[in-house]
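Changelog-linked ticket: SN-glycerol-3-phosphate example.
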Amino acid sequence: MKVPLILVNFKSYQEASAEKALTLAKICEDISREHKVTIIPIPQFFDLQKVKENVKIPVFGQHVDPIEKAGSFTGHVVAENLKTIGIDGTLINHSERKLPLKDVGECVRITRKFGLISVCCAATPNEGEKIARFSPDFIAIEPPELIGTGISVSTAKPQVVTSGIEKIKKINAQIKVLCGAGITTWEDVKRALELGTVGVLVASGIVKAENPKEVLEGFAKTINSFIRLREDMF
Ligand code: G3P
C-alpha cells in the first residue's frame, strides 16, 4: 500500500451515513485517482458492503473483535466476515472503541491471518510502544483529548507524535506510524509528515467540512508536494 496515505474515518456521523457514505467514499476515490494518493474511507458497518462494491479504492472497517471463527457472536465484528465482503483492513482499538491490550494483540493476529491490514490506535506513546510488540501494519497515534477539537495533534502536541514514532520504531522499525486527532488543514498534514509519520487518520475535518472535496484535495496536494521534496523518505 502506497504511503503517505489518508484514512478518513466516517465514525457514526450522519453526514457520512447511508447514501452520504457513498457520496463521501466517491469523493475519496476521485481525489485518490486524480492525485495518485492512497485515500481510504472507513464507513459505518452497515455501509461497508455498499461502499466496497461501488469504489475501486481500499475500504476499511472501524473496529474488529478478537474472534477467530465466525459464528454465534451477536453484535460482534468478525474479521473473517469483513474479508468475505472484500474489506481491505480495519481500525483496532480506536479510543472510541477501546479494547484491552491482550485483545488488541489477538485482533492483530486474527486480521493478519485473514489478510486484512491492521491499523491500531494508540492514545499515548507508551501505549504505542506496547502495541508495537504485536507488529501491526500501522499504528496511529491519537491523543483522545484532541479528537474532534480542530486542534491538530501534529501542531499542538508534536512531541507526542515524535516520541510515539521513536518508541514504536525501537520495538519494530517496520511498523508504519500515522497520527490523528484534530487534523483539519493541509498545514496539519504537512506538519504530520515533517514529524515523520506516513500519513493521517482524520474524521471531522473531512466529514463535517463545508466542502469535503476541497479539503481532501488540499491534503492530497500537500502529500504530493512533500513527496517531491523528500523523495528519499518514501
Ligand atoms: O479516527 C480519527 C479520529 O479519532 C480523529 O477524529 O475528528 O479529530 O479528526 P477528528
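Closing comment: Example verified and attached. The first helix runs from residue 19 to 35. The mean pLDDT is 97.
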